[in-house]
Every structure is written in structure tokens, then in C-alpha cells.
Amino acid sequence: MWRRFLTYRAGVLAAAYVLLLVLIGLATPFLPGPDPRQISNEVMQAPSLVHLLGTDELGRDVLSGIIHGIEVSLTVGFAAACAATVIGVVIGAAAGYYGGALDLLVMRIAEMFQVVPSFILAAVIVALSGPGLTRVVAVIALLAWPQVARLMRGEVMRIKGLEFVDAVRCLGVREPVILATEVVPNALAPVLAAGTLIVAQAILLEAALSFLGLSSADLVSWGRMLNSGQRFLYNAWWLSVFPGSAIFLTVLAFNLLGDAIGVALNPRTEA
Amino acid sequence: MATLLALQGVTHTFRRSGGALVTAVRDVSLEVGESETVALVGESGSGKSTLGRIALGLIRPDAGRVLIAGKNLHDMANRELRRERIAFQPIFQDATASLNPRRTVRDLLRQALRQRGADRNEHMRIELLESVGLRPGSLYLERYPHELSGGQRQRLAIARALAMKPRLIIADEPLSGADVSMRGQVLNLLLDIKKERGLAYLMITHDISIARAFADRVAVMKEGQIVEEGPAGVVLSKPREDYTKRLLAAVPQLAY
User: CA angle A98-B86-B32, nearest 5°?
Assistant: First the structure.
């Protein structure tokens, strides 16, 4: 599995980048450098040796903001993706395996979530219930689980029809055990890959919500930096370009990582 | 001779994806006795595979009974069904599809042996592998199914079936998955197992030459019904039905 993963170069690069982000995110409280909320007289400074990525209209250091923003983005991304994947896997597996009325009910509910434009729904929910990181995570998970559930359901339906499931059934194995040990492990590869993509979507959605000022005002996040920076796009490009690039690179990295995981978890891919 | 499996008046109808109803099996009765080999022959689409899956308890028929030791398989409670059904083991056409790609050979055999409460040591697994001609068995334990050849995979599937100490093996076109050079070997393996263990077989095949090599009794299936049944020597040399004659005439005489 690791060998297959390592042959996918872009995936290795993406994994290295994500790992770096995680390490920086964990080490943020111990890093030297100015507090990202610290106001100073050095306003709107272009990138220089003192402020590597410049400062904003209140004299806050952009690099420091980006570093502190990692924590928010990754926390939201991972938490939302984990929640959505777990919910989606359980619901999708049950619906796909047992079928019938359960399947019908679950899929209609999933469709309800999918036909509503997710960003607008997220914005409305957050606007009504007030900002806050946990709410943002919950909203993203609520919007993302149907993708996982649909994918899981399709995979489970395909796999439960394969002969090895019947062969194991003839060994006298119980149905829930067949689902858990034969069907689910074989259905998981594309689902985990999709879960990684949800990290990317969640980071993007969090940035978008922050961009609209719907995230917590005390938190330093890339989306909020973009939001405040866009007014100065013509005279202070660094306020938009750096947080924007951070979002872009991170979303790209999680997408590539998702592809790499998909490749790595397929035992029949040639190494 | 005691009866192992008795199908009585079994009927099953499928709904095609278009909505049309297809009666795959129509009022079929068939018995397989202890240590007996019955070949179920017919062209593709004649319902023989569906009948095999009904006998394995994988499909519940619309009507009729599947008796194992005098009890209807489809009336049993789940627990009893799980306990009784291990006496009947399947060998499917495509061994690749019948082995979980994520389990190693060791895992696959361990899973089967455990179900019988007999997984004690590595030696048992190796012995099973060697009994189907995968020698030395220890060489194969770490491998995944996709690392084996088609013939080796079919042998592994047979080993797993044997792990359950079955009394009847229901084999659905067991040689079609192996390449031509392996067919003779797999066929000989099945014949050896029959001789050594006194198993009964229900051999589902479109290949008359397999029926000829194998069967004590032959049942000919056409459009969901058994049109002719009798001792292999009689059915295959003096068929009564036109359909059987045509089946026999359509087969080139191949020496295995």
C-alpha cells in the first residue's frame, strides 16, 4: 500500500505539504513572531525583511496571520470531513446493504441536502444561529455527508452482489459481520478519497463564510484575511494574494492527497 | 442411498430491469444423494445457475421447498440456516470474483476454518492448500488472490470449500474461469476429491464432456424446466428428448 502511495509523486508532495501544515499548526503557540492581532504603526507595508509578507491596514503582520490561520482551517477541515465521512459511511453502508424502505428514506433525505445550494444554506444557518467554529463544522458536516453516503451506498450495492460475498455467506457468517468485514473494507477506498476532498471543500467553505464575515470575529482565518484585504487589492496586493494562495495550495494539496489515497487503497493498482 | 439435497417443485421468477417477469426456474424437482454426482446441463439462460443458488440458500424461491436432511432450508431461523448450510459449499465459475481481494490466502482459509471452529494452527491451512495441489502450501499463505494464476485461484476456492468439510459441493461452471490448459488439471482435482472424500456434487455446466467425465446422473434443463433426467450412461448415449440430442450434437468431442 505504501509502495503504491509513494509512486504517486504529486500525492507524496501533497502529503508532505499537509504534514508541514499540521506541524506548523501544532507548533503555532510556541513560534516566535508577532501576535497576528497586534496592531502597530507600520501599516500597509509591502513585503520586506522585517515583515516577510507585509502588513495590513492596521499594521498586523500577514505572515503571522497566515500561520495562525492554519489552525482554524485544518481544524475545521479535518473535523468536518471526519464527521461527514463517519456519518456518510454508516448511513450509506446500511442503506446499500439492507435496501428497501430504509434505503428509500435515507436517499430522499440525502437528496434534500444535495439539491439545496450548499453555500447559501450554510450562510443562512450560520447567519441565523450566530458565528462560531463548532457551528461552522457542524454545518459543513451536515452538508457534506450525503456525498459520502451516496458513494458508499453505490459501492456497497456493487460489492454485495459479488460472488465472494455469497461464498462467505455459504460459510455461515452472520450478515452484519459480512457487511463489516467483507463489504465495507472493499467499499472504503473511493469513500476515503472523497473524504479527503471534503477536507478541501470544508476549508474552502470556511474561508468563504469568513470572507462574508460569518465566522467568529476573534479568530484569525484565511477567509477573514481575504475579506479585509480585498478592499486594498489595487494598492496592497499582498493582503489578498498570500491568504488566497494559502487557501489555493491547501485545497489543491488535499485534492491530490485524496487521489493518492484512492490509488494507494486499491490493491489491484500496479505498483 | 440417503438423500442429501431435495428440491421439490421449486419455482422462481425474476423481474428484469425493464419490468418484464422472467420465470428462471419452473416447478423443478431434483434430488442429490450421498456421494452422488449429478450434472445439471443446459444452455446458458436455462435457469441452471439460479437453481444452484436456490439450492445454496442464496436465493429464496417463490414456491417449492429446498430440503436438507428433510428440513426446508428456507424455513429455518437464521441461526439454524447458518449452521446447516455449511454442509453445502459452492464453487463458482469465476474464482477471482469468489475470493475477497483484500484477504491473503492465509486469511481466506482461516476465515473458513474458524467458522467451523477448527482453525487451530498453520499446519491445517498448509495441509488444505496441499490437498488441492498448491505445494508447498507455505509458499502461498502470504499471497493475495490477484497474485495467483486463474487455475491456482480456482484451487484455492476449492480448498476453502473443503475447509468446511462439506457433504455436497455445488459447482457452477467451475472450469470456465481457468484457461484451457488448466481445465484438465482442475477437473482431475475435482475427480480425485470425489474419490477420496466421497463427496456429492451438483455440477452445473453447459459442457457435456464434463458431465460425461463426472456424472452418475444427468438432468437436462431447458427454459427453467428439467426436460430429461436419468443415469449418465443412458441420457448421454440414448437421449429421449430432441433438446438433449441437439445439446449432444452441438458439442465437439474433446479429450480432457
Answer: 115
Mean pLDDT of A70-98: 92
**Mean pLDDT (whole number) for A149-168:** 93
Mean pLDDT for A41-53 is: 80
CATH assignment at residue A176: 1.10.3720.10
* Whether pLDDT at A271 is above 50: no
Count of domains for chain B: 1
Report residues of chain B scoring pLDDT below 50. Answer: none
ipTM for this prediction: 0.89
Average pLDDT of A4-30?
A: 85
State the maximum Cα–Cα separation within chain B, in Å, rounded to a whole number. 54
Q: Measuring CA to CA, how many Å separate A150 from each of A88, A103, A189, B62, B178?
A: 8, 10, 14, 31, 36
Assess if residue B148 is contained within a domain. yes
* Averaged pLDDT, A180-203: 89
Residue A35 within any structural domain of the chain: no
- Counting the structural domains of chain A, the total is 1
Instruction: Examine residue B124 and state whether it is found in any structural domain, yes or no.
Output: yes
Q: Is residue A44 part of a domain?
A: no
Helix axes A133-160, A100-115, angle to 10 degrees: 140
Q: Does residue A153 lie within any of the structural domains?
A: yes
Is residue B29 in some structural domain?
A: no
**Region A259-268: what's the mean pLDDT?**
76
Dist. CA A186–CA A180, nearest whole Å: 10
Is the Cβ pair B102, A267 closer than 8 Å? yes
Q: Who's near A19: CB < 8 A, 6+ residues apart?
A: none
Q: Which residues contact A214 (CB under 8 A, 6 or more apart)?
A: A123, A126, A127, A131
For residue B240, count other CB atoms closer than 10 A to its CB. Answer: 13
Q: Is B144 on the interface with A (CB under 8 A)?
A: yes
Q: Does A213 have pLDDT greater than 80?
A: no
Q: Is residue A129 part of a domain?
A: yes
Cβ–Cβ under 8 Å, residues B47 and B223? yes
**B3: phi then psi, degrees, rounded to nearest 5:** -85, 130
Q: Kindly state whether B168 is in contact with chain A, defined as any CB-CB distance less than 8 angstroms.
A: no
Can you tell me whether residue A34 is helix, strand or coil? coil
User: Structural domain of residue B123, as residue ranges?
Assistant: 101-165
Instruction: Give residue B176's pLDDT.
Output: 76
Reported confidence tier of residue A220, pLDDT bands at 50, 70, 90: confident
Is residue A85 within 8 A of residue A198, CB to CB? The reply is yes
Instruction: Tell me what the pLDDT averaged over chain A comes to.
Output: 86
- Best of A164, A166, A177, A179 to disrupt the B interface (most B CBs within 10 Å) is A164
Q: Is residue B170 part of a domain?
A: no
Q: How many CB pairs under 8 A join A and B?
A: 61
Tell me the chain A residues in contact with residue B82 when contact means C-beta distances shorter than 8 Å.
172-174
pTM of the model: 0.81
